[in-house]
Design a protein that fits this description.
The chain has 129 residues and is an alpha+beta fold. The chain has a single domain (10-118), classed as Zincin-like. Helix content is 43%, strand content 11%. The chain contains three helices and three strands; from the N terminus they run H-E-E-E-H-H. Strands 1-3-2 form a three-stranded mixed beta sheet, with helices on one face. Helix 1 (10-21) packs parallel to helix 2 (66-84), helix 1 (10-21) packs across helix 3 and helix 2 (66-84) packs across helix 3. The two termini are 13 Å apart. 22% of the residues are buried.
Length: 129
């Protein structure tokens, strides 16, 4: 039987872009079913430790649509980077200037990588059911 796999994995691309931009920034990614229970609830959340040396945890709700999960992952990883770089005390809220700049950089690099992957992959995905 032929091996089946996704040639383009948008979530992995966001992960790889983040790791390339912030190679020494640890984080854990988890999928959960207890974040988005109703309209208005978040699809994702970054749990930032209280300077006790714990690793930040990014949680994404399993009900998040794939297109949304890419955006949610980038959004939450921007929080992790702000924390890791020690920039969180320099802004008024958790979506301040530094967070926006980091999110923009992640998104910019993601789109470059996505376009590169599209050019390299004649088939977007291969799956056998």
């Amino acid at each position: 039987m032929r091996q089946q796999y996704f040639q383009i994995d948008p979530l992995r691309m966001v992960w790889n872009v983040f790791c390339r931009l912030f190679p020494n920034t640890p984080f854990v990614l988890e999928w959960t079913d207890d974040l988005h229970k109703q309209d208005g609830d978040p699809w994702g959340q970054a749990f930032i430790p209280d300077d006790n040396g714990d690793t930040p945890v990014v949680s994404i709700d399993v009900a998040t649509p794939v297109r949304g999960a890419v955006e949610v992952l980038a959004h939450e990883l921007a929080h992790v980077a702000v924390y890791d770089l020690g920039l969180n005390e320099l802004q008024d809220d958790d979506h301040g200037k530094h967070w926006e700049e980091i999110l923009d950089k992640i998104n910019e690099e993601y789109h470059v990588e996505f376009e590169r992957q599209i050019e390299l992959a004649p088939v977007v995905f291969v799956a056998q059911f």
